[in-house]
């Protein structure tokens, strides 16, 4: 055992990508064990590694952790990315839940039937522009600091940057009306651990291509 966390998931973004982001932001090296076929997932299920018979699963500190939110909360708490007190943690949780809703709307649009894909993506991007990004623009304005919560980087900042970049892949000018989010993106992208994760060759996963979807679906269905 290397002592590094081991991430069990397919070689794609999905629900593991935010975990990769958070570990990278914390400066934690990790290993990945990719599910290539349905049998790989079945093996994890039958050997008792998956508490609820599903991935993501992360081996960390002697545990086999499942449930994305629980994994992220543990990593954030362990590496001091979860605020200084209960109130800050509540704000972080609240902001992150909104980001997760938006993130999933954008990502799952790729898995819609071809005749609905464009419409679902348009709906998700409309939500980004008119519901979610205005909230975080206002949070940054009202807070008056470089970060969303308190005066230091938290998991909320990491997840907001991830969400911004995912949205920009689909609509490059999506931050046009949000100057504070533009500044936030520039600042957080240059934090050394995050900057490293954004470089080619890092464990960050590219967008899922249409041609890859059948293979991914075959693993999970």
UniProtKB/TrEMBL annotation:
UniProt-listed Enzyme Commission number(s): 2.5.1.18
Keywords, in A-Z order: Transferase
Residue ranges occupied by any GST N-terminal domain in the UniProt entry: 3-83
Taxonomy, superkingdom: Eukaryota
A biological process term (GO) from this entry: glutathione metabolic process
Keyword Iron (UniProt): no
The keyword Transferase belongs to this UniProt entry's keyword annotation: yes
One GO MF term attached to the UniProt entry: glutathione transferase activity
Domain spans labelled GST C-terminal: 85-207
InterPro entries: Glutathione-S-Trfase_C-like, Glutathione-S-Trfase_C_sf, Glutathione_S-Trfase, Glutathione_S-Trfase_N, GST_alpha, GST_C, GST_superfamily, Thioredoxin-like_sf
Family stated for the protein in its record: Belongs to the GST superfamily. Alpha family.
Stated name of the protein: glutathione transferase
Gene name of this polypeptide: Gsta1
């Amino acid at each position: 055992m290397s002592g590094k966390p081991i991430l069990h998931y397919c070689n794609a973004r999905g629900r593991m990508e935010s975990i990769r982001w958070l570990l990278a932001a914390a400066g934690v090296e990790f290993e990945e064990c990719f599910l290539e076929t349905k049998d790989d997932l079945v093996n994890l299920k039958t050997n008792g590694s998956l508490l609820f018979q599903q991935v993501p699963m992360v081996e960390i500190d002697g545990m086999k952790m499942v449930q994305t939110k629980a994994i992220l909360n543990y990593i954030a708490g362990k590496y001091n990315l979860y605020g200084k007190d209960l109130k800050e943690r509540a704000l972080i949780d609240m902001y992150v839940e909104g980001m997760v809703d938006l993130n999933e709307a954008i990502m799952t649009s790729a898995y819609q039937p071809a005749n609905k894909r464009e419409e679902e993506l348009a709906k998700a991007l409309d939500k980004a522009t008119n519901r979610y990004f205005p909230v975080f623009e206002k949070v940054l304005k009202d807070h008056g600091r470089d970060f969303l919560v308190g005066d230091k980087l938290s998991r909320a900042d990491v997840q907001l940057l991830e969400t911004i970049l995912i949205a920009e892949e689909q609509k490059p000018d999506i931050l046009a009306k949000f100057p504070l989010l533009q500044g936030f993106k520039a600042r957080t992208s240059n934090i050394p651990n995050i900057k490293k994760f954004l470089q080619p060759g890092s464990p960050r996963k590219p967008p899922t291509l249409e041609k890859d979807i059948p293979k991914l679906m075959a693993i999970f269905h």
